[in-house]
UniProtKB/TrEMBL annotation:
Organism listed in the record: Thermococcus paralvinellae
Keywords assigned: ATP-binding, Manganese, Nucleotide-binding, Nucleotidyltransferase, Transferase
Protein name (Swiss-Prot/TrEMBL): Diadenylate cyclase
EC numbers on record: 2.7.7.85
Gene3D superfamilies: DNA integrity scanning protein, DisA, N-terminal domain
Residues of the DAC domain: 108-264
InterPro entries hit by this protein: DAC_DacZ (IPR014499), DacZ_T (IPR048542), DisA (IPR050338), DNA_integrity_DisA_N_sf (IPR036888), DNA_integrity_scan_DisA_N (IPR003390)
Cofactor needs: Mn(2+)
Length: 268
């Protein structure tokens, strides 16, 4: 069976499964499936390179497929919840060029409005790196770090170096193909990475000079100084902060709040 017929069979079966399990959405993972969009009575989400939420029936979101299907499906779950397409406990069906799957959304993935509001290639790239660090660590050892993206003028104003800046004088960008190894190496340092909206790495080993109490930042019990600092800088400035804990949990902060939280090591 050629690839085109294979995909058509999967989508035909997906429509049957939607009816059988009362699924609330159909997710097509990879833009190569766009030409195979079927007529169906549930919302359709196309995961690829485009970002377009204007169509009531078909939503397009860009996610790096190199994260792996499990992590992409987890993030799609967050998107569906955030946009009130489905609720916790409800099910969606997803199709890739090679597989057909069913996912029931559980509360382990938390999100609030913000992460999927616009296409953000730099954030997606950092998320991909954070997932890899969560799963692999550095040389097998767990890693914890902070990435602060955007509003760099103010972020630098409210932070200082605690070690010499290893990126000073260099023009390295998180979108560069070979950058992941360098980021992994410096993720072992104390402090945060400071990254521009275009992806340029301005600094690492940066201490965030923010007082969460004065900023009225409130986080769930159990989160430590790294998360408070990330929440604080995202409230003090217009930046977005991504934290990675040694436990593997990734959190994204905007305006002092957690807008995305999940653990790539867990099976949902």
């Amino acid at each position: 069976m050629d690839k085109g017929k294979h995909i058509k069979v999967l989508i035909t079966k997906a429509l049957e499964v939607i009816n059988e399990v009362n699924a609330k959405a159909l997710v097509l993972i990879t833009s190569s499936l766009e030409n195979e969009i079927p007529k169906v009575d549930v919302p359709i989400i196309v995961v690829g390179k485009d970002f377009d939420l204007s169509n009531d029936r078909i939503k397009k979101i860009p996610l790096p497929l190199s994260l792996g299907i499990k992590n992409v499906v987890n993030l799609v779950s967050a998107f569906l919840i955030e946009n009130n397409i489905i609720s916790y406990g409800e099910t969606f069906v997803y199709v890739t060029p090679n597989t057909l799957g069913i996912r029931t959304v559980k509360k382990e993935i938390a999100t609030t409005r913000g992460f999927f509001e616009e296409a953000q290639t730099v954030l997606q790239r950092l998320l991909e790196i954070a997932v890899e660090l969560s799963l692999e660590g550095r040389e097998g050892h767990p890693v914890g770090t902070i990435f602060v993206v955007g509003d760099t003028r103010n972020v630098l104003k409210y932070s200082h170096q605690i070690i010499p800046n290893p990126f000073k004088g260099h023009k390295l960008n998180v979108l560069d193909k070979n950058i992941k190894g360098i980021i992994k190496e410096f993720a072992m340092l104390d402090g945060a990475f400071i990254i521009s909206n275009t992806g340029r790495i301005l600094a690492a080993g940066r201490y965030l000079d923010v007082d969460p109490k004065k900023l009225d930042v409130h986080l769930p019990p159990g989160l430590g100084s790294r998360h408070l600092a990330a929440a604080g800088i995202s409230k003090k400035t217009k930046a977005t902060a991504i934290t990675l804990s040694e436990s593997g949990v990734i959190r994204v902060f905007k305006n002092g709040e957690i807008i995305l939280e999940y653990n790539p090591r867990m099976r949902y």
